[in-house]
Amino acid sequence: MKLRALHLTNVRRFAGQTAALDDIGDGITVFSAPNESGKSTFFDALHALFFQSHASQNREVKSLRPHSGGAVTVTAEIETGEGRFRLEKTWLSRKSARVTDCATGRLLAQEDEAEAWIDRLIRGGLGGPAGLLWVRQGVTALEPDGTTTAEKRERETALAARRDLMSTLAGEIDLMTGGRRMDHVLAACRAELAETATATGKPRAGGPWKRAEDEVAHLSATRDTLAAQVAELSGALEERRRAEAERARLDDPDERAAREAALKEAREAMQAAEAHAARLKAAEREVTIAGLEHAAAAAEVKDLQGLEAALAEAQAAVAAAAEAERQAQAAHAARGAEEATAAQAVSGAEARVKAARAAHGRAQRAALARMAADRLGEMQARLEKAEAQGKHLAEARAQVEAARVDDTTLATLDDLNRKLTAAQARRDALAVTVTPRYSGDLRITLDGEELPEGTARPLQDRARLDLPGLGALEIDTGGRDTAEAARAACEAAERALREALEAAGVTTLAEARTAHTARQKAEAAAAQAAQLLASLAPEGMDKLRETVAALTLSAGAEQEEEAGDPDALARQLEEAEAAETEARATLDAARKALARADMGLSAAQTAHGQAREALESARTALGTETEHAEKTAQAAERLHQATEKRDRATAARDALAAQAPDMDTLRAELARADGAVKAATDRMRALSEQVHRLDGLIRARAEDGIEERLAEIEGQLDTAKARAARYAREAAALQKLEEALTAARHAARDAYFEPVKAELLPLLSLLHDEADIRLDDATLLPVALTRQGQEEDIEILSGGTAEQIAILTRLAFARLFARTGQSVPVILDDALIHSDDDRIERMFTALHRVAGDQQIIVFTCRQRAFSRLGGAEARFAIAMT
């Protein structure tokens, strides 16, 4: 299988677009682009096409969907020995799968049938050729090293694929010591062992050994349960004796009377303490009330003293407000005078600007008339040139329309010609080729035509060669049905090319190229004429004509005499406008200052009024001096009486607090006595229930006959243990047989591994002289490298060396798969990231050595380093969907 084209529609960064990678060749194809260009997207999409069902919605499929959502479509064109086919899958929405024959356009399979067609193509899924040879970005190991179920299954499938491949190639040693026959024997041994034991030698779940072990465990558990019940019966008898003795002790009359007397004494002490606490709480209330009365009297005295201070502050505030009002009136008058002066200045500036603007306008009109007269000739000449280029443009476009072979038509013809060449090559590949080598004057003839010296001639079906002096040689290729199909494909390709040439109005591909060249020249002439026309009339011919007409009208206008110099008048206008702006700014500032003065005067007047009102309020609140003095004396007396009352209540409260008993201790004593009575009652009830329960248990155990049942179970347990031991011996014997077969297989590994090493060692010698590789018997993968007589494990090699060996091993397996008819492209996504400059060039040589009969596709972001790889350079095109 060879990949020829890959199209992605609405995949990741190509949302709403179709990215196409076409014309992928046979050898090395390099897709080199910067990071984030979509290289890994092509790799992941191709992987999903071959290994993910169109109905799947797993994480790998969902990762292809762009942020904008929608259906994801991946299409690939592949070429096999049976022809060229188009594979197409759509996921997530509008799910579908299709396989189409590219030569005929016939739909071969769809949906589940298409999935089955692809499965047959890739032969083995992820463990087969594609899973081994397709290297995802960041992965250089030959198999996953994770512990998940999927990774373990992938490792097992890959190992099975490698064993099948090696057994197929090593047919000459397919004896009991190696190859497929050994695989079958080992598989049978392991299958029988797997029914009984696991890989670690433990009993397998569901197997006879595990069932026997489970029976032993069940009987052992039953025996232990019965033994425990026997012990439980004995313990129950002893426990009932102890419970009855404790119940009798708790029910003794003397102990019962002592508990009740202690509870009565604790309750009386608690009642006396609660009465004392009530008296103390009443005293606390008296202290609180006296304190409130004292605070009210003190506040009254303070308020009376505050009225005097408030009157003095109000008098001072009235005097300050009157002075502030006088100053505000003076400032307001000054700002009013400044505003009037500024308004007069603005009026004068406006008159001067008006006069300057009128003079400048007259001068500008005169200057424009003179400029229009100067430009009129230039614009008329440009109009004439533009009209001439318009004629050239129309002629060139007519020539373009006459030449029917455009880029698309020529590309179609080239593609049909390539398909014809490929069909002819397939037809010739089925033929028998003869090449004459003459030593004399006589010549071999075919259908009366002499065959030239050293020229290969393909022969189809049957042919008769005339050999002068000898007779004739009849040749039968034996491939008539296949050759007939190849000729039919050639005829179809010739017919398609001929029809396309006729549609293009030419008879040969050379005429088509000539017509295409003529069209390109006409298009270039049209583009040049359009460019010149755009430069002469950037706003269009109509606009250019309007400009010429306007200049003609302006040039004919009357010019005023002695209009003055426009530039000088413009400067005068600017000076007048600047003076006007400055005058207006001065006026604005004066008006703002006047507004602030207005606000200041208003605020001062308001503050003066408020101060007078506050003074009147203070005088009213204070009253006459006689009334104020009388109120002050009365308040002082009430404060004295409140102080004495507060002191008496505080002393009484403190005396009661000193005599208060410890409430926490009394509560604890009461709780202890009450708890002792309740605990004794609860314990006696619990002991009665315990004795009742034990009586029932003892009767039940005595009736069950558990001693007899225990003896029966112990006999069954001995029988089950013997059966489990027999299965254990059988598993051990099978394990020994497997070890012996494996040892015999290891003895033949050199011949078994010969095909892999025959492909791998020549590639390895490009990097290391006289190097050897050791392959593991279990995984069939490299585990050690020998250089200069020293063997090194793969795990201790540098990252670059380990990566290079992994890539070379893949190339070797690719050659082996191709030898068995399972040719699959080698696809490397950003591989060789750890290789130095010298090693990477040698690896490039290894790739070219394999690429002679193997398709290799390289995705890389290392554009400078991989420019030395050679091979065909791929570019993808993007089109909107």
From TrEMBL:
Per the database record, which ranges form the Rad50/SbcC-type AAA domain? 6-81
> Which UniProt keywords are listed?
Coiled coil, Exonuclease, Hydrolase, Nuclease
Question: For this protein, what is any one GO molecular function term?
Answer: exonuclease activity
Which residues fall in a compositionally biased region of kind Basic and acidic residues?
625-651
Stretches of the chain forming a coiled coil according to its record: 226-331, 369-433
Keyword Coiled coil set for record: yes
**Annotated spans, Disordered:** 622-658
Annotated GO biological process: double-strand break repair
Q: Which domain of life is it from?
A: Bacteria
The molecule here is called DNA repair exonuclease SbcCD ATPase subunit
